[in-house]
Amino acid sequence: MDAIKFVNEKMLNIPSYPNFRSGDTIMVTYKIIEGSKERLQSFRGDVIQIKGKGGTKTFTVRKISNGVGVERIFPYSSQIITEIELLKRGKVRRSRLFYLRELVGKKARIKEKRTASSK
Fold first, then answer.
1. H/E element holding 54?
2. Residue 1: burial class (beta carbons within 10 Å; 0-12, 13-18, 19+)
3. CA distances from 48 to 10, 20, 29, 95 (A)
4. pTM of this structure
5. What is the pLDDT of residues 96-119, one digit of tens each?
């Protein structure tokens, strides 16, 4: 059993990203290939779910763009993701934040988790 897990980890080559959870605000930078051109684009939003294990692990990021909610599902082990930057830690009590889809404006905000500063 351990040998199978070891082989799967080595074959998948999952990159190391910052440790983020549901409710956190992240910025995902990914490659877009258009013909022979290649460019980087960023998607900034709140993580509303993390799903799966190993090579099938995905996370969903939601943002509001011009008053319209936009969600994007990213595979965790995708080759097009170049960087994930953790911007804010969110304080939530659930792992799936689908209730945010019905909320608008200030009600759709996620409280920021306060961290102890080192003095």
1. none
2. exposed
3. 29, 11, 18, 7
4. 0.81
5. 999 999 988 888 889 988 877 655
Which of 5-14, 45-54, 58-67 has the least mean pLDDT? 5-14
Rounded CA gap, 99 and 36, in Å? Answer: 41
**Residue labelled with tokens 């306060």:** 114
- β-pairing verdict for 81-88 and 37-51: unpaired
Cβ-contact 43, 86 below 8 angstroms = no
Tokens of 6: 């070891």
Q: Measuring CA to CA, how many Å separate 24 from each of 62, 80, 87?
A: 11, 21, 8
CA 50 – CA 46 distance, rounded (Å): 11
> Looking up tokens 């804010």, which residue turns up?
88
Among 54, 95, 89, residue whose Cα is nearest residue 75: 54
